[in-house]
Design brief:
Layout: E1 5-10, E2 16-21, E3 26-29, E4 42-44, E5 51-55, H1 57-62, E6 72-75, E7 90-95, E8 102-103, E9 113-114, H2 115-127
Length: 130
């Protein structure tokens, strides 16, 4: 996690996230890129986007991967808008199922799983056992 990163690479767990931001810095992992330490692995979000939607792991799961949850991070904007004492302002709305909601893949290849167990499994994969 470098000093240029405001938020280290991560996936959102829920259904989706809505982000309103006055300057960008949001980057998503380039398709097919597996080396996140390489700057070529990251694509910037459109700088003029007022609203961004990020698909979460739960929505990706129930869509059987038709909707992909991107690995993303926030870095210091390269356009200089973070200079002169100006801060990045954003509002994020995280939408996720209730903990007891049963998630089922649209193609029925996986057994239904409670969202709380699904989220716990993702956290365990990302950070080790809880």
């Amino acid at each position: 996690y470098s000093k240029e990163e405001w938020c280290q690479p991560h996936f959102d767990y829920g259904s989706f996230t809505l982000i309103w931001a006055d300057s960008t810095g949001l980057q998503v992992q380039a398709p097919g890129s597996y080396r996140i330490e390489s700057e070529e692995a990251w694509l910037p979000a459109p700088p003029d986007a007022d609203l961004m939607v990020i698909v979460g792991k739960a929505l990706s799961f129930v869509s059987s991967g038709e909707l992909s949850a991107p690995l993303h991070r926030v870095v210091l904007p390269s356009d200089g808008r973070h200079c002169a004492g100006r801060r990045r302002s954003s509002i994020a709305l995280f939408v996720e199922p209730s903990k007891d909601t049963l998630l089922q893949c649209s193609d029925s290849r996986s057994e239904p799983i409670k969202y709380s167990d699904f989220k716990k499994s993702l956290r365990s994969q990302a950070y080790g056992s809880e």
